[in-house]
Automatic annotation (TrEMBL):
Binds together with bS18 to 16S ribosomal RNA. It comes from Metarhizobium album. This is Small ribosomal subunit protein bS6. The lineage of its organism: Bacteria, Pseudomonadati, Pseudomonadota, Alphaproteobacteria, Hyphomicrobiales. GO terms for biological process: translation. InterPro entries: Ribosomal_bS6, Ribosomal_bS6_sf, Ribosomal_S6_plastid/chlpt, Transl_elong_EF1B/ribsomal_bS6. The keyword GTP-binding does not apply.
Length: 149
C-alpha cells in the first residue's frame, strides 16, 4: 500500500464537530477500501489567501493515509460531491513524519534570532538631547530682518 498525506478545507460555517464528523466519514471510506488512517490533525479555522466560493476562512484538516490508490480515489470522489469541502490535496510520500506537523509546531518568538543583530530595543522618544543643538525654546519668534530697518 502507498503512503499519502491528505489535507482538506471545509467551509467556514460548519462547526468543529462537523469537521470531525467529515474526518470520520472519510476515514471510514479509507478503511472500507482496505486502508488505514494514521495521524489526524485538525488545524482549526484559518484565513484563506483568497476567497473560495464566497468563503474567507476555512477549517483545515490533515490525515496521514496508508491505503491502496483506489481507496484514495474513492475518498476524493466523495469530497468532490460534498458541498462542505472547498478544496483538498493528496500527496504521495515516502514515509510519514513523526510527531506534530509543521502547522502544529509553535515556535516561540523569543527563540528566533533577531534580524538587527544585538542592538537593544529603542523607541522614538528615548533619543536624548542632541549635543549640536541648544535647548529648545517655546514657539517661533519673528526677528526683524536687518535690511528692513
Amino acid at each position: 500500500m502507498a503512503l499519502y498525506e491528505h489535507v482538506f478545507l471545509a467551509r467556514q460555517d460548519v462547526s468543529a464537530q462537523q469537521v470531525d464528523a467529515l474526518v470520520e466519514q472519510y476515514k471510514g471510506v479509507i478503511e472500507a477500501n482496505g486502508g488505514k488512517v494514521g495521524r489526524v490533525e485538525n488545524w482549526g479555522l484559518k484565513s484563506l489567501t483568497y476567497r473560495i466560493n464566497k468563503n474567507r476562512k476555512a477549517h483545515y484538516a490533515l490525515m496521514d493515509i496508508d491505503a491502496p490508490p483506489a481507496a484514495v480515489q474513492e475518498m476524493e470522489r466523495q469530497m468532490r460531491i460534498s458541498e462542505d469541502v472547498l478544496r483538498y490535496m493528496t500527496i504521495a510520500v515516502e514515509k510519514h513524519e513523526e510527531g506534530p506537523s509543521a502547522m502544529m509546531q509553535k515556535r516561540d518568538r523569543d527563540d528566533r534570532p533577531r534580524r538587527d543583530g544585538d542592538r537593544p530595543e529603542r523607541s522614538f522618544g528615548d533619543r536624548g538631547p542632541r549635543p549640536d543643538r541648544g535647548p529648545r525654546e517655546g514657539g517661533f519668534e519673528r526677528r526683524p530682518r536687518e535690511d528692513r530697518a
